[in-house]
Amino acid sequence: MSETRSMMALKKAHGVFATLTTRPSKGIAILALPLALSPVAALADQDINALLKNAQEAVDSGDWATAKLDLQDALKHVTDRQIDAMAAAFPPAQDGWEVTKEASGDRSNVMTGVMMSQQYKKGDSTAKAELSLDNPMLGMMSGMFNNPMLMQQQGFDRVRLGRENAMLKWNEKNSSGEITLILGGRVMLKIEGKRLSSKDELVNMAKGWKLSEIKDVAGI
């Protein structure tokens, strides 16, 4: 029996995360052997492969309930790998700043997509970076961002982050603001800053997002 669409999608996603994990970092010399999966990642891969195999066997035998449970468990493992890969793509702390809470995500409900955040601090200044993937609210947000007139009415200005367009909202009175970027209608990246030296500080933080890695993990 041919593979179900859910299983093919999971295998494709699983392959993306395995590739990301084993891809050598730019600028690092690799001696003799290719980079291997960490023990934890390798174990997760074994779990995913076993669950997919069990699900296929259940489908072949017509045991739909077991197939569904195995696919759901596999999806949870894939989401864990996705969160781990996304965490490495958050902006690093800028000069004088420190990360006070490292990137973490909600692993409890895969149906609401991936939602992650990381917090930063420099003296009295604070910032929070957020990443949302496949959140049901992204469709509405994407529609708003594609309407420049509406965004301007709400106080947003368009700024460039590499080849991408982002929306910046800055309050000069309290030196606070936010900068938001949507990728492919599926990923929203947002940084909120309070008591910053200028809006340029907020933009520089946003330039730290590893956009190519995020696109790879999201399949954009």
Essential attributes:
seven-stranded antiparallel sheet, alpha+beta, 220 residues, 25% strand, 2 domains, Protein Transport Mog1p, Chain A, 7 helices
What does this entry show, briefly?
By secondary structure, the protein is an alpha+beta fold. It has helices at 5-22, 39-60, 64-87, 138-145, 148-153, 199-206, 211-218, and strands at 98-105, 114-122, 125-133, 157-161, 164-171, 176-183, 187-194. The protein contains seven helices and seven strands; from the N terminus they run αααβββααββββαα.
Describe the structure.
- The protein has 220 residues and is an alpha+beta fold.
- The protein has 2 domains: 83 residues, no CATH class; 121 residues, Protein Transport Mog1p, Chain A.
- It has a 7-stranded antiparallel β-sheet with strand order 1-2-3-7-6-5-4, with helices on both faces.
- A hairpin with an 8-residue loop joins strand 1 and strand 2.
- Helix 1 runs antiparallel to helix 2, helix 1 packs parallel to helix 3 and helix 2 runs antiparallel to helix 3.
Quote the distance from N terminus to C terminus. Answer: 30 Å
Averaged pLDDT, please? Answer: 79
CATH topology of the largest domain: Protein Transport Mog1p, Chain A
Sheet-strand content, in percent, reads 25-35%
- The H/E string reads HHHEEEHHEEEEHH
Q: Total number of helical segments? A: 7
Keywords: Signal
Signal peptide: 1-44
List the SSEs and their pairings:
Layout: H1 5-22, H2 39-60, H3 64-87, E1 98-105, E2 114-122, E3 125-133, H4 138-145, H5 148-153, E4 157-161, E5 164-171, E6 176-183, E7 187-194, H6 199-206, H7 211-218
Antiparallel strand pairs: 1-2, 2-3, 3-7, 4-5, 5-6, 6-7
Helix pairs in contact: 1-2, 1-3, 2-3
